[in-house]
Amino acid sequence: xxxxxxxxxxxxxxxxxxxxxxxxxxxxxxxxxxxxxxxxxxxxxxxxxxxxxxxxxxxxxxxxxx
Length: 66
Hints:
Radius of gyration: 25 Å
Oligomer: single chain
Mean pLDDT: 86
Order of helices and strands: HHH
């Protein structure tokens, strides 16, 4: 449920959005460059960490069997 203030702000933003055409929206979006290298690196590092953890646990279980 939106408060009155949020509803007024939402209507104002929708009005501003309708004033722009599709071409103008594309031009505005082209100015922004999204760089996800840091996020990709963190995801890769976390996956590598999980893989190392699994290898450690697997080696520990194999050594207990020997």
